[in-house]
Structure formats: structure tokens, C-alpha cells
Amino acid sequence: MAQTLAKLAKFFRPIGKGSDDVVAIKLHDRSVTIAEIEVKSNIIHLENLASAALPRPIEWQHLTRQQEMISDSLRGLRDQGLFAANDAAIIIPSHLVTIRQINLPYMSDSELAREGQDSAFWAELEPDINKLEDPFIAYYQLVSSENDDLTRVIIGFCEMATLRPWSDILLGAHLNPTYLDLEPVAMVNYLYASLPRDERRQSQAILHIAAGQAELIAFQTNRFHTIKLEISAFDHVLLAEVEDVDSPTGGFWDEVGGRIANALKQAVLFLQEEQDFSPFSVIYLSVDAPRAKNLNNLLNQHFNLAPLSLWNTLLGAEAAPQVVSLFATTPNNSSFASIFGLGMRKLGTFGDTDPGLIKLSMLPQAASLRRNRQLGVISRALFKFSACITLVMGAWTLGFVIPAFTDTEVKSRGIDTIREEAKAAQLRLAGFREQVQKLETEIANLQVAARPRGKSLILDMLSDLVPEGAELSSYKIEDGNNLKLAGSAKTTAVINLFVSELVNSELIENPQAVPLKRDDKDLFDFTLTGQLRQVR
């Protein structure tokens, strides 16, 4: 069904129009950034990039309290004409959602789709899901090989309450939520799309440092893994302030760099030894901060398994002049990697795929929203088609039908006489209809008079009311409507059943039965009296 709708939407696209682009949104500690990106023939073009400062720092664990503040900032950017799209997607930071790679025995697409709807299926594989009260689970199939008996999927899971504020922010800014994308996934998609084709087959790694968190993200075309680096809160504070130091050298900074490099080294060795990643030729450094030069130098001095390169996100992409100007004034543009990766995402309205590697959305209503957009394209196309048909029929009527009708009217004679005769016929027909109505009324009255009532009605229905195990011997009506029945029954229960049937029939008022047991047999004689109800 989903593929059929996508094909229909693509077929009607020239008529029904509809955009497949989104405005990507990312929240920083003290600002919000938007980006608009267009991808054609796998060429990434950065159309627009803008930021706005927030009045207060963001409290990630209490985002609900700051929804209005963020929505106001987004509306301000839109009012300034910095973006015009209605469909929006937003980045969710890594520390709010758990993301895992899971290896399963081979499963067909239909089997995985069926099993994936049940959270218990994933809870058996990831026990942490059982700790969530109202979990939302999204998954993406990375590899499916029947020969290797392997199905590799990536899942993201968290509480539904964690996701609601993110979509509410977009709704508060009068935008249509289309994607809630995980930051590691968006960064991988952008790096994968911006690399030359021959490098996409190699192992790639991204060291991402943001919001007091550090993680190593590694991927190949057939695998994906994230590792949180065990770095103390004190070291995170030092990393945030290292850019303010003229030259981070000496014993103190050597110890800081050594601790962070050691944590990074352990993560890299784990990926190579336990997850079968080949050695990394370079590790891209993405830091959510205005500057990161000192941090990059400090880590390169103490980490020797691979060179670290501060990610220049403009490489592998084209940019509009205003984006190039903004990059020229930004010492560190690596923080834009995730928002660029999100901006490449297509809505999927027409079945087109984006150039990324992983498609994993944490928006619970993503499938229904995609279906609604497809139906919108189809309905607009059908409306325009029907309007076009109406115009053609109107033109044909005005050009051919009406002139022919006018010519016929001129040539006709005696039309007034015909109209008078038609009016007289209508009057006669109205008189006939009135007579028919009177006759129908009389017939209805006769049918009412012919219905059985009173005594005859009880006689018609009495045989159906006598239960099994009972037999009537006499039937007598006294004083007009006093009914007296006599008979015998096997048990008093049968007599009571007979009385209840008479009550339910509403033909006798207050029926009362007096049973009397026979001496020589297991039978009960009874007399039943009641007042016959007249049926009008």
C-alpha cells in the first residue's frame, strides 16, 4: 500500500506539486540553527544557514519548560525571511535517546516488519527497554543476508514523554513535524554523502563532543556503532575552556590530553577488536562550540592510532554565497554536520531516497504523516483535473450546445401552447395525486381495522405462549375481559414460566395461577386468572 501511494504521488506530482524538502533545525546550548539543503544528482547544495541566540541556556532534561522560548525564536527567524518551508525536522541530542546495533538471524522484510511492531520482541534483545514505562522504538534494517543468516538492524528507543517536547517545539513555531532525527545518525548520513564513492566502503569514525558528552561514532556501509567515552565532568569543563588558553601545553594539559586520548584509544581498540572495524585512516572531530582548534591540537598530541581532523563540513558540498560568508566568520563549522545531515532527508512523499546511509526517525506519526502528504498530492491533482474537465465542458456547452439550443428555440412554433397544455396536465396530475393520497389513507385505516385485537389476539397467540410440559383444558372470558384458563403441568416451574410468558406478552394484566397437585399422578392442575387487555 505504501509503495502504491508513493508511485501514485510521483505520477501526479507534475499536477499536484508538493515539495520534498525540509528545514532542518538544531538546538545548541544557547542558540538555535536552521538549514535548508537541496540535493540533486547526489550534489549537496547548502541553500541557507542561519542562527538565533536564545534568551536563556537550554536545560535538556527540562525542555518542556522552554518550548515557548524556542518556538518564538524559530518564528522570529521565519518572520525575517530566513526560511520559508512548512515541513521541519529537528535534531535530538545523543544523550537523550539510546541507539544500538543488533545482529539477528536472517529475517525477511515482512517478518521483521511484523515482529518489529511488538515492543516485547525488542525488549528480549535489549533489556533496557523493559525499564521504560511508555517506550517508543524505531528501527532501520542495515543488512539482510540469507546466505550469512544475518539481519543487522539499528534501533533507537526512549520514553514517549522524551519525544513529545521536540515535536511540540515545531508545532509551536507553526511548522509541520516530519522528522525527529538522532544526532549520530544525521552526522553519519552527512559524512557518508559527502565522501568520495571509493572512501564510502572504508571504515569511518567521528568523535563528537557536545553538551558535556563525548561519543565515538563508527560506521561502514554494513555496520554502525556508537561508544560513549568515559570522560569526567571536570575534564569536560576543561575541554570547554581550552580554547580560551593561548597555548594548552605543559604538564597539566598533558594530563588532560592523555586522559581523553586514553579513553578514545580504548573506544577505537574496542571497535577494531570486538566489532570488526578496520583501522581508521582519519577520525573526524565534531565539536559543538564556536572554536575547537586548541582541542584538536591537544588530542593529536596524545592520540596516535589515527590523526584527528577538525571536520570542515563545507568539503564535499556546494554552498550559497550567504552560507560561504557565514562559514568565513566561523572558526569551527564542524558543529553543523548533524544539521546538514538532517537537511538532506527527503520526506519520502514521492518514494525518492536521500543520499544518506541510515534512515531512522523518532517521530511516532512519521508513517501516517507521509501517507497524508501523498494523499494531499493525489487529491490536489484530481481537483485540478476535475476543474480542467469542467472548463472544457463549459467551453463546449457555450460554443456548441447553447447556439444549437438557441437556433432550435427560434425555429420552434407554438411553444407557448405546449407550455399551457403542460401546466394543465400538471394540475390534473396534482388532482390525481391528491385522490391517490386519500385512497391510501382509507386503505391504511381499513388495514388498521382489520388487525386482530382484544380476544381474537389472545386466541391467536395463546398456543405460542404455552410452554413445553403444560396443557390447557379450558378457556373462558367472563364479564367482558376477565380471562380464566385451566390446565395441567408437569411442575410448578412450568406453570410459573407460563405466567411469565403471559406477562411478557402484555396481553393479560396481573395473571395469577393456583396450582393443585393430583393425588394419583405427578401432575399439577392449575387455574389461571387475569384481566384481558384490549389492543387498540
Task: Report on the architecture of this protein.
- With 536 residues, the protein is an alpha/beta fold.
- Helix content is 43%, strand content 25%.
- It contains 16 helices and 18 strands.
- The protein has a six-stranded mixed β-sheet, sandwiched between helices.
- Helix 10 links the parallel strand 12 and strand 13.
- Helix 1 crosses helix 13 and helix 9 packs across helix 10.
- The longest helix is centred in the C-terminal third of the chain and has 46 residues.
- The two termini are 60 Å apart.
- The mean pLDDT is 87.
Annotation keywords:
single chain; 536 residues; alpha/beta; six-stranded mixed beta sheet; five-stranded mixed beta sheet; 16 helices; flat
- What general form does the structure show? flat
Output the strand order for the largest sheet.
8-4-1-2-3-14
Flag low-confidence runs.
none
Strand content: 25-35%
What is the terminal separation in angstroms?
60 Å
Q: Please report the number of helical segments.
A: 16
Structural class: alpha/beta
Largest sheet, in brief, is:
6 strands, mixed
